[in-house]
Amino acid sequence: MHNPAPVVVVLHGGTPPAEMTRIQPHAELRYATADQLPEALPGADVLFVWDFRTEALPRAWPAADQLTWIHTATAGVDHLLTPDVLDSAVTITNSRGVFDQPMAEYVLACVLTFAKDLHTTLRQQDRLHWQHRVTERIAGRSALIIGTGPIGRAIAAQLTAAGMHVTAAGRSARDDDPDFGTVHASADLPSYIGEHDYIVLAAPLTEQTTGLLDAAVLSRCAPTARIINVGRGELVVEADLIDALRTSTIAGAALDVFDTEPLPTDSPLWQLPNVLVSPHMSGDTTGWIDELLDLFLANLRSYRHGQTLHNTVNKQRGYVSGTEH
């Protein structure tokens, strides 16, 4: 069965990528900002969410009179799981697979930056200041990856190849995971987080993971530990993290995601010398837009032929069905 060209609404933040024209031969395309979404949704079959921080769905939802599929150009889907969407029969798919390796490379880069003190080197270079220092090895150091989905597994492969000892935290404990070996239960995080040199956050944002690293958990970290967050800002209680950094409860943090984005200019995180701030870019590499569109167009072909969609999200769990976290 081959269905007629569906109506696809692209929700964007102001300027949709020029590459979106690749969709035009396969669908009737409508562009909409958050304010325009209620007017664009009537009669639409598909919503392609390019604006990953959008909060437009609740207000626009009554206009979604024909919608059967929502696709997001992100791995995380927390921004889409509104009560109306959860109660509906609308299928959600994500862009799992596009960001795995780039984000793993970013995490390795952060580990090396801390170990080799590269952030200090750059600051000293800016000041024309020569200061010899001794740095650390990463081989033999331990990393705890919180989140056992595809991104977490790609990170594990990268860090393991660099000689690090990697374990994970997920929904359920197990000792025979093919990529991590040992997976601890996230609920028991305070009991083992102190054993690790690097704590990497790569979990989806769910009710269970929101605020996972708070003052109580951070207080159990080793004072030499560094935290790397490539998941969602809300996985960490930001005020507690700032306190932990200021008081040397932990040694540093590399943050690619934040509670508020862009990060406000008055945030203390900008000025702390043991913090690396990047503007939510860990997964964005040359050619990423075309990769995202390749994935969407493959699913669009399946949609038009009545076939099962790839990367279908379990809406109750908040991630792709069959993926353990």
Automatic annotation (TrEMBL):
SUPFAM superfamilies on file: Formate/glycerate dehydrogenase catalytic domain-like (SSF52283), NAD(P)-binding Rossmann-fold domains (SSF51735)
Cleavable signal peptide: none
The D-isomer specific 2-hydroxyacid dehydrogenase catalytic domain, residue ranges: 17-314
Family assignment from sequence similarity: Belongs to the D-isomer specific 2-hydroxyacid dehydrogenase family.
Keyword terms, alphabetized: NAD, Oxidoreductase
InterPro entries per the UniProt record, alphabetical: D-isomer_2_OHA_DH_cat_dom (IPR006139), D-isomer_DH_CS (IPR029753), D-isomer_DH_NAD-bd (IPR006140), NAD(P)-bd_dom_sf (IPR036291)
Superkingdom of the organism of origin: Bacteria
The protein, known as: D-2-hydroxyacid dehydrogenase
Annotated GO MF terms: NAD binding; oxidoreductase activity, acting on the CH-OH group of donors, NAD or NADP as acceptor
Residue ranges of domain D-isomer specific 2-hydroxyacid dehydrogenase NAD-binding in the record: 109-282
